[in-house]
Specification:
Layout: H1 3-29, H2 35-83, H3 89-172, H4 178-191, E1 195-199, E2 202-203, H5 212-220, E3 225-226, E4 233-236, H6 245-248, H7 256-268, H8 273-276, H9 307-316, H10 321-324
Parallel strand pairs: 1-4
Antiparallel strand pairs: 1-2, 3-4
Bound molecules: zinc ion.
Zinc ion is lined by residues 203, 205-206, 208, 227, 229-230, 232.
Domain C4-type zinc ribbon: 202-234
Keywords: Coiled coil
Protein name: C4-type zinc ribbon domain-containing protein
């Protein structure tokens, strides 16, 4: 298998994986989209419960006032009826007092009752208002949920398609690249780019300048090389500015066999993402004599944060072929 095919496959795989992780993120965050609507519904329901309690209180009060009114009316009417049978002045005065008091009470209670009945009416209207608001909110939420369900289903079918492409691309790569593919997944998950160009000896992923010897190897394109700083897979990209001589001096001793033995050693203890950043020397050709192959721990930077540093280095290390000699 030609290395250019491997690089092309990895680039294709990168496109697939970036889409896949993006979609997975969206599926994960989908339920949160309705969170504010659910919260609003919850507030409305609490409000409605409070209104309902108030309505019940007013209703009880109205019933009580109705009984009181009935009492007052009965008392007044009885008084008036008994007036016909009055025989003494004393009886007359007592009845007169009863009627007067009952009339006053009747008037007061009737006024209170009217007021309370009006409140009850308003309370009922407000309660019904709340109920219809809740109904429409529920309907909206249901619709939102069904839209979201469809969206998620659509995402999932996209994922299925992506998985097929992913498997297809992976299966085209030789067995020996499967570990590389595995690492590739981790890098893309974190950085969204797992394979980047090297231009003028600079990694386009982290913008660090690479040791000249190493950059030459990338240029040779004979094996998979990982950036010692950001761990991304590197491929050479012509800029038109570079001189040919670097390429001609390419160290040819780094064979595929070297790479394979390196790979096995390095990959055997590579379990998860976190350990990966320290694995910058993966696939790095041990035949280079610039002392760089021990770069694992201190030379590694995790992300793009170190652009400035990289550019600084560019200034005093632009043409560092001598390093490798
Ligand atoms: Zn890099």
């Amino acid at each position: 298998m030609e290395m250019t095919e491997v690089f092309d496959s990895l680039k294709k795989l990168q496109g697939v994986l970036v889409s896949r992780y993006e979609i997975e993120k969206q599926i994960e965050s989908a339920p949160k989209q309705l969170g504010s609507q659910e919260e609003f519904l919850c507030t409305l329901e609490k409000e409605m419960n409070a209104k309902d309690a108030e309505y019940q209180t007013i209703k009880e009060n109205v019933e009580k006032l109705k009984v009181e009114l009935e009492d007052a009316v009965t008392s007044r009417e009885n008084g008036e009826k008994n007036m016909d049978n009055v025989t003494t002045h004393r009886e007359y005065e007592a009845l007169d007092k009863q009627i007067a008091e009952a009339s006053i009470r009747e008037k007061e209670v009737r006024a209170s009752l009217q007021k309370e009945e009006k409140r009850l009416e308003e309370s009922l209207a407000s309660l019904e208002n709340s109920k219809s608001l809740i109904d429409s909110q529920k309907a909206e939420l249901d619709e939102g949920r069904s839209v979201l369900d469809k969206q998620v289903a659509e995402f999932k079918s996209q994922l299925d398609d992506l998985k097929k492409s992913e498997d297809e691309i992976s299966s085209r790569l030789d067995e020996k690249y499967q570990e590389t593919v595995h690492k590739f997944h981790s890098i893309i998950k974190r950085n969204s780019e797992g394979i980047v160009a090297v231009r003028n000896g600079v990694c386009m992923g982290c913008h660090m300048i690479l040791p000249a010897q190493f950059a030459n190897e990338v240029r040779g394109g004979e094996k998979i090389l990982f950036c010692p700083y950001c761990s991304r897979i590197l491929f050479y990209e012509e800029t038109g500015e570079e001189e040919q001589e670097n390429f001609l001096d390419l160290d040819e001793t780094g064979s595929l066999a070297d790479f394979l033995s390196d790979e096995e050693d390095d990959f055997s203890d590579d379990s998860e993402d976190d350990s990966f950043a320290a694995q910058g020397e993966d696939g790095y050709d041990s035949s280079s004599d610039d002392g760089f192959s021990s770069s694992g721990d201190d030379g590694i930077v995790d992300d793009e944060d170190d652009e400035d540093e990289g550019e600084d280095e560019l200034d005093d290390d632009g043409d560092s072929e001598s390093d490798a000699e």
